[in-house]
Amino acid sequence: MKKPLIGMLATLLVAGATALAGALPAQAATPAAAGVLSDTAHATKAAPQAAVTFAGTVALSNCSGSLVRMPGSAATDPALVLSNGHCLESGMPGPGEVVLDQPSSRTFSLLGAAGGRLATLRATKVVYGAMTDTDVSIYQLNTSYASIKSKYGISPLTVADTHPTQGADIRVVSGYWKKIYSCSIDGFAYQLNEADWTFKDSVRYTSGCDVIGGTSGSPVVDASTGLLVAVNNTINENGESCTLDNPCEVDENGAVTVHQGIGYAQETYGIPACFAPGNRLDLTLPGCTLPRP
């Protein structure tokens, strides 16, 4: 994971942004890394399908994110925004730390299909945040899906409740950089270690999704279904093993593998099982496996 890029420099350094992609966010004013978080420039040819656009994505001060709904969410429910745990304005949660129900007035720039800014959305709280097993933050907004749709014509992305598929054609959609990376799911890392953090069953990209700082929190969208299947969070930048910005894979037998230049995302299919009607988080629900405090 990378430290967030500094906002003032981010725009000026687009051409050289790849070199800045590996650090975890250090403060809310800088883009958080994707590689730990990265963006992909390689487009994979596939059968005709609905185009993936920026509609429903958001830009944070230091990261990317998306307006999301669970499969059971209602139009009148308070809307949710999904990003990375390492993008939290309070800083990166430590191993084993879980952030729950914390007040927040964070703002998000809502994007239209072409990447233009449509509105500023505001949070009321951090519903959930963690960097243990996964790397996720979920914010609740002060408005509903129905209100956002009525005012801006934007619908949320739906979080898939089934495990992503190896070989699937995917898009990593960065609201921060207004860039869409195209690649495929190469496979899954049993365990991904980066500095002090450990992630489980992570999505490994093919080389097309060479994400950079600021792409952290980008939705990973299955191009064939339009469903959100993961959240972008890191990339191995320079071939080091298990260090910050250089995640390593550890298999069931403890063998360590390093894939320099390869990015990863954290699966999201387990999140819907943790939400009750009304978009209410309940970590005690059957099937909910998100880490608890």
The third-level CATH topology is Thrombin, subunit H
* Major sheet characteristics: 6 strands, antiparallel, barrel
CATH architecture level-2 label: Beta Barrel
Q: pLDDT below 50 for ≥5 consecutive residues: which ranges?
A: 3-29, 35-48
Which secondary-structure class do the elements indicate? Answer: mainly beta
Secondary-structure element string: HEEEEEEEHEEEEEEEEEEE
What gross morphology would you assign?
Answer: globular
Number of domains: 1
Tell me what you see in this structure.
- With 293 residues, the chain is mainly beta.
- It has one domain (1-293): Thrombin, subunit H (Beta Barrel), CATH 2.40.10.120.
- Helix content is 5%, strand content 37%.
- It has 2 helices and 18 strands.
- A hairpin with a 5-residue loop joins β12 and β13.
- The model is unreliable at 3-29 and 35-48 (pLDDT under 50).
Secondary structure topology:
Blueprint: H1 7-12, E1 57-59, E2 64-69, E3 78-83, E4 98-103, E5 107-111, E6 117-130, E7 136-144, H2 145-152, E8 157-158, E9 169-174, E10 179-194, E11 197-205, E12 219-222, E13 228-235, E14 248-250, E15 256-257, E16 263-267, E17 275-276, E18 280-281
Parallel strand pairs: 2-8
Antiparallel strand pairs: 1-2, 1-5, 2-3, 3-7, 4-6, 5-6, 6-7, 9-10, 9-12, 10-11, 10-14, 11-16, 12-13, 13-16, 14-15, 17-18
